[in-house]
Amino acid sequence: MSQQPDGTSAIDLFIIGGGINGCGIARDAAGRGLRVALAEMNDLASATSSASTKLFHGGLRYLEYYEFRLVREALIERETLLTAMPHISWPMRFVLPHNKGMRPAWLLRLGLFIYDHLGGRKILPATRSIDLRTDPAGKPLKPGFARAFEYSDCWVEDSRLVVLNARDAEARGARIMTGTRVTSAERHADHWHVALNRPDGRVETVVAKVLVNAGGPWVGDIISGVLHINSPEKVRLVRGSHIVTRRLFDHDRCYFFQGEDGRIIFAIPYETDFTLIGTTDQDHHGSPSDAVCTPEEQAYLCDFASQYFARPVTSADVVWTFSGVRPLYDDGAKSATAATRDYVLSLDTSAAALLNVFGGKITTYRRLAEAALEKIAPQFPGLKGRWTARVPLPGGDFPVEAVASLVAKLAADYRFLSPFWARRLVRAYGTEAATLLGAARSAADLGIDFGATLTQREVEWLVAREYARTAADVVWRRSKLGLRLSMDQIAALDRWMAALAPSAQDAAAE
Question: Cα–Cα distance between 382 and 376 in angstroms, integer?
């Protein structure tokens, strides 16, 4: 990043927003040799990108809305992404019970046939029919469900995906700034002056050739309030809420349930001892920061799941809820459910180039980044071409089928690890888990025990390498250990992190 005579920094590409789209674009651009900076006003993945249903999937239900291009692109991406991040993404099987009176069996078969073949599936197994009266997947369900279809999609640790993209972008030369608010962006003929408020109170100005607005649900607010531009393009805010319950079934498959209202929900094994149920689709009004799973949404999800599970799901089963706001492109759809999940990239070159990012889904984030770079490529003659497909993210440099052996090796090399602990570390850090543990020969070598297998060594890693600043960053986004830690334990972690030497915090922030 070059310095101007007046002390400002000059770069090629400035990105507003540290969600999956912003970090994905930063990684792609940095790998092509561009000078990149990204500002996120809070923590990475602190909004929509940590509130997904945690799936790399084609979007089976989108076939009903004839979104064939979106579904095909997403299906192709599942295996592309799985290959690049086998630690934070893995194959899962989904059980779709046939519910008489809803979509007929022939339609489900047809949809799943298309789903199996539209994206050139190579790694994931094909759809099969199962008898719920004899298959273990039928045991938790009401006895009226006799037949189901089982198909493939993939799990992903959404917030870790964002952080690893940011890390890889930084390793390739990008500057990642968290806790940094863009207060204004002044447009000139061939450059932008971007004013920043840094976490320590410093005010900084960056000069950039191209500005990317990847503000997620704040994309419209940035256009009007930060860039001061009138745009006819609008964003539709749709709230998706989830509940997490104690474990509802004993196998490792997921359920795909159809509702009488035409919607669908998933029930997914979650963090070993829990079940994740979601999601809702409600138009959201007000600030995206205010999104919560309302009592009505919680009751809706419990009632929906109870139509299928033999033992009713009640509010007493719920241990946690979360909600995020999807920034969908406003295509005029009558309902939130019908609104397109496809992304729209709007490039304005009337002066210095501006790219606004609307919509998108986590499965297609890498393709969105490629499309964004193609849009702005004319601004950078000689720009390198696509490169990110199947290139591992940090810790992901091992084969998809080698997870079990990697866990076994880690447990053998570090005999103090419990099976849960070893698996958790591999699922979070992949081949870097051993680097994190270093020469430790006992749990005591890892420093303070914060509870639930979280140690000082791991927290220091997250601060130094993964932009973590608070306990919430650690226990709800870098991990989900908040489900296992008490409020007192989380508060103690927060106090300890706040007391870290300022120099260490500053180094991590940079």
Answer: 12
Neighbours of 222 (CB within 10 A): 20
CATH number of 2-47+160-234+340-379: 3.50.50.60
- Write down the residue that tokens 């009138």 correspond to: 230
Question: What is residue 425's three-state secondary structure?
Answer: helix
Q: Which residues of 311-468 form beta strands (DSSP E)?
A: 318-329, 343-348, 353-359, 449-451, 454-455
CA neighbor of 211 nearest in space, from 41, 376, 380, 343 = 376
Residues 6+ apart with CB under 8 A from 212: 13, 14, 15, 16, 22, 25, 354, 355, 357, 372, 376
Domain 90-154+237-327 has CATH 2.40.50.140: no
Query: In this predicted model, what pLDDT tens digit does every residue of 282-304 receive, in sequence order?
Result: 999 999 999 999 999 999 999 99
Domain boundaries, the chain: 2-47+160-234+340-379, 90-154+237-327, 407-509
Q: Are 155 and 454 in contact (CB under 8 A)?
A: no
Residue 61: closest CA among 157, 144, 151? 151
pLDDT in tens, 94-143: 999 999 888 889 989 999 999 999 988 889 999 999 999 999 999 999 99
Number of H helices, E strands in the chain: 14, 21
The CA distance from 110 to 302, in Å, is 29
135, 164, 242, 114: which is closest to 432 by C-alpha?
164
* pTM more than 0.90: yes
Strands (DSSP E) found in 109-202: 128-131, 147-156, 175-177, 181-187, 192-197
Estimate to the nearest angstrom the gap between the alpha carbon of 339 and the chain centroid.
Answer: 20
263 class by beta-carbon count within 10 Å (0-12 exposed, 13-18 middle, 19+ buried)? middle
407-509 placed in CATH 1.10.8.870: yes
